[in-house]
Specification:
The chain is of the alpha+beta class. The protein folds into two domains: 4-51, no CATH class; 53-150, SH3 type barrels, CATH 2.30.30. It has three helices and eleven strands; from the N terminus they run E-E-E-E-H-E-E-E-E-E-E-E-H-H. The chain has a five-stranded antiparallel beta sheet. It has a four-stranded antiparallel beta sheet with strand order 1-2-3-4, with helices on one face. Strand 2 and strand 3 (20-23) form a beta hairpin.
């Protein structure tokens, strides 16, 4: 019986004549089994790199409405999708997580994100975000104006609730 094992889905067999472990699928061999597994890992990294996809990560700040007039309400950052991770076994506080991928945002560390949160690196998507940024700044201006207007509201004072104050003191005495 020929000694056989697998590593990341690749079959590795021991060639007793050559005294080497061999993975015929990627044409790699070595006298040391760990070296063949390492060669498979290197092969898979190279394959992932060649299959990587240029993309955009959307950075949206519209939830923070204390923005300045020149704030970036929505921006696209270049990223590269480097690995498909599939569906996770866990749930987030917001419900089930979607399909996960690993990305390398430009100038930052690798991270895991939902696939549907990554966008195609196209001029059309850049234009959409530019339009959204424009509308977002209009919204920031409107919200800031709304806050100024709301500051004009006249708040109640203790003198307006003096009868309730007096009644609260009566209740305390008893």
């Amino acid at each position: 019986m020929i000694p056989t094992t697998t590593h990341k889905g690749y079959k590795i067999t021991f060639d007793e004549v050559l005294e080497k472990w061999r993975c015929a699928e990627i044409d790699k061999s070595s006298p040391n089994l760990q070296n063949v597994k390492s060669q498979i890992d290197t092969f898979l990294r190279k394959e992932r790199k060649e299959a990587s996809v240029q993309a955009f990560e959307l950075n949206a700040m519209w939830a923070n409405m204390n923005l300045k007039q020149d704030a970036k309400v929505a921006t696209l950052s270049p990223a590269v999708v480097v690995e498909y991770l599939g569906e996770p076994n866990s749930r987030s506080a917001y419900g089930p997580k979607g399909v996960q991928v690993a990305i390398m945002p430009k100038g930052r560390s690798r991270k895991t994100v939902d696939l549907n949160k990554i966008y195609k690196a196209t001029k059309e998507n850049e234009e959409i975000v530019r339009r959204a940024q424009e509308k977002g700044l209009e919204a920031v201006l409107a919200i800031n104006q709304m806050k100024l207007i709301l500051q004009e509201l006249e708040a109640l004072e203790e003198s307006d609730v003096k009868d309730l104050i007096a009644l609260s003191k009566v209740s305390e005495d008893e």
